[in-house]
Design a protein that fits this description.
Structural class: alpha/beta
Strand content: 15-25%
Radius of gyration: 16 Å
Largest sheet: 5 strands, parallel
Distance between the termini: 58 Å
Number of strands: 5
Order of helices and strands: EHEHEHEHEHH
Bound molecules: adenosine-5'-diphosphate
Shape: globular
Length: 168
């Protein structure tokens, strides 16, 4: 039986945006199965959306792709890749700055587990500027988010930004 190609795509997805979704869609065509892992990054704490909210948003927007699963993850990504029965880590690249970070991450993961390969997809040109940080900033000032987010996510981000403003 041919070996099934399973890839893992990790991130904070705080919130998921069109740049992420484009990588998920292209990954879903490249691999038999894609596991979308929503992580907890201690350096990025506290998140804008809780882990449960981020999982729910990703489930909503990845539903159209039949071969994409959404899972939470903590700890080392290479451990999670193995647990998920995968051998590939999928990453998106936006800029040269991304490359520096991704290069050292990929080399570190290679050292931790030589069997796991990292596959990079260049961001589509219309999404190269997009990041969750930028989206949170636009949301906090009440800007129009419709060009950056999947339609179902726009009201959720707007509501969260209003909630945060009310909290002071
Ligand atoms: P962000 O920087 O938007 O908070 P994450 O930390 O959730 O994103 O990143 C998860 C993965 O998605 C990483 O591989 C990252 O490089 C990729 N990614 C993030 N934004 C984009 C984008 N606009 N285009 C392509 N890939 C992206």
């Amino acid at each position: 039986m041919p070996q099934r190609r399973v890839a893992v795509y990790t991130g904070m997805f705080d919130p998921v945006h069109l740049g992420h979704l484009d990588i998920v869609e292209r990954g879903s065509h490249l691999f038999d199965r894609l596991v979308n892992c929503v992580g907890i990054n201690p350096e990025k704490q506290p998140p804008f959306f809780s882990l449960e909210e981020r999982l729910h948003m990703l489930e909503q927007v990845t539903k159209p792709f039949g071969n994409v699963a959404v899972k939470p993850f903590t700890g080392l990504a290479v451990h999670f890749v193995k647990t998920a029965g995968a051998g590939i880590m999928l990453r998106g690249l936006r800029t040269v700055t991304d490359m520096e970070y991704e290069f050292s991450m990929s080399l570190t993961n290679q050292t931790l587990d030589a069997e796991i390969e990292t596959v990079f997809l260049m961001s589509r040109v219309q999404y190269t500027h997009l990041s969750s940080t930028l989206i949170r900033q636009i949301a906090s000032f009440g800007g129009d988010l419709s060009k950056f987010l999947p339609p179902a996510i726009v009201p959720l981000v707007e509501a969260k930004a209003r909630e945060r403003r009310a909290e002071g």
